[in-house]
Amino acid sequence: MSTDWNAVRAQFPALANWTYLNTATYGQLPRRATEAVNKHFAHRDELACWDFLSWFDDADRVRSRLAQLVGCDAADIAFIPNASTGLAILVSGLDWHPGDRIVALEGEFPNNIYAPSVLQRRCVEFIETSWERFYGAIDERTRLVVMSSANYVTGFTPPLEEVADFLRRRDVTFYVDGTQSVGAVRFDIRRIQPDVLAVHGYKWLISPDGAGFMYVSPELRKRLDPMVVGWRSHRDWRNVDNLHHGTPEFSETAEKYEGAILPASLLYAMEASVDLILEIGPETIENRVLELAEKVREIARELGGEPVAKGCGIVAIRFEGRDPSPLARALKEQRVLVSARHGLLRVSTHFYNNEDDLERFRSALKSLL
Which partner from 113, 163, 271, 331 sits 20 to 30 angstroms from 174, CA to CA? Predict the structure, then answer.
């Protein structure tokens, strides 16, 4: 059955006033997500929060939706406020030794550079390498590889399944930041098999900032300690009439990395957004995103630009001799929103965009070049 993209687009009120081609910075919230938050706050007022434990049951339902989206079990999913927290849980929970090595690709999102580099004070070596030299950078001292599913500047998408297989045979932990693709391009954990996938949902998952999740493999959970230990750390935390007061006995599920209260309102919004993605269908969305992105590349070439990579919804364009920052600001004056990153004009399409958006972008950009 064909998708009514006009009906889908009507879920996003901001698109009535803006030509929005900037999901790599922020995704737009659908109306149903805002309505879910409002419904939750009205429910709180109605019942004075006496049923708060049921909110965790609802959170488990969201956990199941996310597991369905990325291809794992609900027990493998923990909620996190952002991808930085997911990486912090991993980096702080591993047993490091002097001389251990962490490898990341050059040009990664700052999270994935800053956190590993701090470990250098503990004599852990951190190196950044080009994709062309990546495999040669993995040696017998390498303990961790940090990589994005799509580069935030260029849109480069590494072959994650191939990388994961290579690292698994060398017993190297593999962390993937999926923030720049999950929700737009399909991610199959059962096929890729990373040790950790962290996703902040405020971009392609069209969720509020502060709503995120991480997958932690069952094998890694056996040796990765939680970073936060709180009242929900003990496996019997739902017994609130008689909370455990000894040393916590952790659950075997990824929930043990949450530790404390959850942002219920944000999770209800995330559920509404993920349900929309599942209703449309991840494959349908991926096809739509990639089709629109290819049309952006055609526009770029028509106007003398050079797209630098392909494979996701991010199109990075180089205009020889032109600084993209003034271009992005001038486009904003015409209510066309894109970004400038590291000398490239970054255009990012999602499933809620359409051909009219692209034509407005083409016309506005042509007038500036």
Answer: 271
